[in-house]
Each structure stands twice: as C-alpha cells, then as structure tokens.
Design brief:
The protein has eleven helices and nine strands. By secondary structure, the chain is an alpha/beta fold.
Length: 213
C-alpha cells in the first residue's frame, strides 16, 4: 500500500473540505492539526481549491493534504503542482488513473459496482473510494460487492458522520472513511475554527476507538 494511504489508515478519517475562500485555508489547517487530525481532501469544486492546497502545503509541509473531485488530468497537474500528496476522484476515469500511476501519484478513484472494482484491479490498485456510500446501500452493500475481492481495501465516503463511521471502520476491508461533518462550509465561512478543532478532536477519538471494539 502507498505510504500516504498507510498514513491515512492510521488516522481512519479523511476530512472532505469544500472551501470558498483561500484565506481560510491556513487557519483551517491549523485547527485540524491542533485537533489531532491533519488529513484533508480539498475538493476541486471551488475556484479557491488550488490556492488553498498551495497555502496549506507551504505552511504545513507535514500535513496530509490532497485533492478531491479530480475529474481530469489537468486537475491532477494543478493539484500536484500546488502540493497535493494524493488524488481522489468520484469515479474511475481510466485516463486520470493511468496518468497518476505513470507519474507515481497516489490516487483513490471512486467505485460503485463490481464491474468498476474489476476495472480498478486491472490497474493493480489496492485501495478505492466507495462512493456515495450511504446512498448506494451503506455498509451492507459494500460487504456484498467486496466479497469476491478479498485483497481490495476501501475508503467509504458520502453520508458518513459520527453516528455511523464506527460501523464502517470496524469492517476489515475499510482503511478509512471520508467525512465532512467536522468541516462544514458554514463553520469555515464563519471562521469558527475553534469548533472545527473540537469536532476534529472528537472525530479522531472516535476513529481510534475502532480498535477497542
């Protein structure tokens, strides 16, 4: 498994972040680090995404900052140039996956069906994103579609929060979950970084408890 993915596994959570103003990126990252959860997926859904990644990567070089909602090779190039350490995509775009693998860029593409899982295995991927997790059928569906593929690991994302994350994390094929309840847009825009720090700390404590169940 890629070193970055091993690190993500150790935390158990990737915070999925939509950020509208790059000026909030550094205090946001600082709050996440203080909360003990220095893992962030900045989604390419806003114009501030690239600059936000760049600012975080420069200010906190040890933080695991990656890019999400990556839909093209140009997105990959922009993200990596800005300092992204990993790439996440909502689906499995062969061109994007091939480019990342050829350039040794960690990528976790999204899957929703056994057919897409087989395509991921053709690329020798070890970890894929299960998305949108809850809308697809949640943990039961994941267990069903993953059964024929014992070596593949998953990062469920979509509809996951503090109420159901432990159920996912206790499944042996899940290395981490993506979630946004700690970093909601309204908390970022209102600059409520203290609350973000507290929620990140609570989330990390929750994730660590998976090994005690």
């Amino acid at each position: 498994m890629e070193k970055v993915l091993e690190e993500i596994k150790s935390f158990g959570i990737i915070q999925v972040i939509i950020i509208d103003e790059a000026e909030n990126s550094v205090p946001l990252a600082n709050a996440l680090i203080d909360g003990g959860l220095p893992v962030a997926e900045i989604t390419f859904r806003t114009k501030a995404a690239r600059e936000s990644i760049e600012k975080i990567a420069k200010e906190f070089p040890n933080m695991l900052v990656g890019a999400g909602t990556v839909l093209s090779i140009d997105n990959v190039k922009n993200a990596v140039d800005a300092g992204a350490k990993f790439i996440v995509s909502p689906g499995l775009n062969p061109k994007v996956v091939e480019y990342c693998l050829e350039n040794k860029i960690p990528i976790t593409p999204g899957i929703a069906t056994p057919t897409e899982i087989e395509r991921a295995l053709e690329f020798d991927l070890e970890v894929v994103k299960y998305f949108p997790a809850e809308a697809l059928g949640g943990l039961n569906y994941l267990k069903a579609i993953s059964a024929p593929f014992p070596k593949l690991k998953f990062i469920p994302t979509g509809g996951i929060d503090e109420k159901n994350i432990l159920n996912y994390l206790q499944f042996s094929k899940v290395i981490a979950c993506g979630g946004s309840w700690m970093v909601k847009s309204e908390l970022i825009s209102s600059k409520n970084f203290e609350e973000i720090k507290n929620l990140a700390s609570q989330a990390q404590t929750l994730a660590r408890s998976r090994n005690n169940k």
